[in-house]
């Protein structure tokens, strides 16, 4: 019996985001990050039944993540805690060129997860397993665990979604390309950004990129194109939906918010075009505040924004 809509597998990172006060010493707003956690909160705020699959340190930041997820209604039954390894952290700084990330994640608890530690029951109970290329990149054991989780999902009639979140500070492009495309052959839904897809495929045109990924066997491709638009492609149809321009102050986590919103709508049976419109609206709203999680909108706010746009 499928009692979980979405099981999100990946590394949470505690966040310190620089506030643009022009003061020395710099002030930081603490919060929560990591693509899998951002995604989980987004999906939960849109109404999905979400669970997290990860490993945290037995430290204050790990405790804060558990408290966050419980507050958001995200199931924490499958969250492991490591006795010695820490929960990863990162800093966001801003300048005229945009926002920049500094990570302290090497040897994090999440990176040490092993295939033998995966909760098979959780994967069996989920309608959808979601993971990302970042989880593949943080360590060999995490990479092996992603492949093992996908194998369990395929055995359990659990759909699989995959975000190609490409971080070249974590691995070289040749390895990233080989591993990401091997995973893409195994999943049902793939959600790359246009910039990432261009680097991974060597192609420029969105339709050519869609052809490439559908050629790998993906059933549903969602190409994220930032504030301009988003594209959905399957063997049966192809469509684009315009984005929304808002007063953006921080785009951190916007892609994760988009993915959580889209997949929640898609699992609910909404048409791809409707799911894209909804996800575009959610992603636009989350860029109007600072940090990855705090500004993620709840369902009522997204629906109100969609109604306003219409």
Shape: globular
Residue-averaged pLDDT: 93
Major sheet characteristics: 9 strands, mixed
**Helix segment tally:** 11
The helix content, as a percent range, equals 25-40%
Structural class: alpha/beta
Which percent range describes the beta-strand content? 15-25%
Question: What Rg do the Cα atoms give?
Answer: 18 Å
How many DSSP E strands? 13
Low-confidence stretches: none
Map the helices and strands.
Blueprint: E1 4-9, E2 13-18, E3 28-33, H1 35-45, E4 50-57, H2 60-72, E5 79-82, E6 88-95, E7 98-104, H3 120-125, E8 126-132, H4 133-137, H5 140-155, E9 159-163, H6 173-184, E10 189-190, H7 194-201, H8 206-215, E11 220-224, E12 229-233, E13 238-242, H9 254-267, H10 272-286, H11 299-309
Parallel strand pairs: 1-4, 1-8, 2-6, 4-5, 8-9, 9-10, 10-11
Antiparallel strand pairs: 2-3, 6-7, 11-12, 12-13
Helix pairs in contact: 1-9, 9-10, 10-11
Structure report:
The mean pLDDT is about 95. The protein contains eleven helices and 13 strands. The chain is about 40% helix and about 25% strand. It has about 300 residues and is an alpha/beta fold. A nine-stranded mixed beta sheet has the order 5-4-1-8-9-10-11-12-13, with helices on both faces. The protein has a four-stranded mixed beta sheet with strand order 3-2-6-7. Helix 9 packs antiparallel against helix 10 and helix 10 crosses helix 11. The termini are far apart.
Report a brief summary of the structure.
This protein is of the alpha/beta class and 310 residues long. It has helices at residues 35-45, 60-72, 120-125, 133-137, 140-155, 173-184, 194-201, 206-215, 254-267, 272-286, 299-309, and strands at 4-9, 13-18, 28-33, 50-57, 79-82, 88-95, 98-104, 126-132, 159-163, 189-190, 220-224, 229-233, 238-242.
């Amino acid at each position: 019996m499928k009692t979980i809509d979405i099981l999100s597998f990946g590394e949470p990172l505690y966040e310190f985001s620089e506030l643009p006060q022009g003061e020395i010493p710099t002030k930081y707003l603490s919060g929560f990050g990591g693509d899998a956690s951002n995604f989980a909160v987004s999906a939960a705020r849109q109404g999905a039944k979400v669970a997290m699959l990860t490993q945290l340190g037995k430290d204050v930041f790990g405790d804060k993540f558990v408290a966050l997820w419980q507050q958001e209604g995200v199931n924490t039954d499958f969250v492991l805690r490591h006795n010695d390894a820490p929960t990863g952290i990162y800093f966001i700084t801003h300048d005229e060129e945009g926002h920049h990330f500094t990570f302290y994640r090497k040897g994090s608890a999440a990176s040490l997860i092993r295939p033998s530690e995966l909760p098979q029951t959780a994967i069996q109970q989920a309608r959808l397993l979601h993971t990302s290329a970042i989880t593949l990149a943080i360590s060999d054991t995490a990479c092996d665990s992603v492949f093992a989780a996908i194998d369990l999902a395929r055995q359990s009639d659990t759909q699989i979604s995959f975000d190609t979140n490409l971080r070249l500070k974590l691995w070289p492009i040749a390895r990233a390309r080989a591993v990401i495309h091997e995973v893409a052959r195994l999943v049902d839904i793939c959600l790359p950004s246009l910039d990432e897809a261009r680097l991974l495929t060597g192609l420029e045109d969105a339709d050519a990129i869609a052809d490439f990924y559908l050629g790998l066997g993906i059933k549903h491709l969602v190409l994220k194109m930032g504030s301009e638009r988003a594209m959905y492609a399957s063997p049966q149809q192809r469509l684009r939906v315009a984005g929304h321009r808002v007063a953006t102050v921080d785009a951190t986590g916007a892609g994760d918010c988009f993915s959580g919103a889209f997949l929640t709508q898609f699992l609910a049976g909404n048409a791809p075009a409707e799911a894209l419109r909804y996800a575009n609206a959610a992603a636009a709203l989350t860029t109007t505040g600072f940090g990855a999680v705090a500004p993620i909108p709840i369902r009522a706010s997204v629906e109100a924004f969609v109604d306003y746009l219409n």
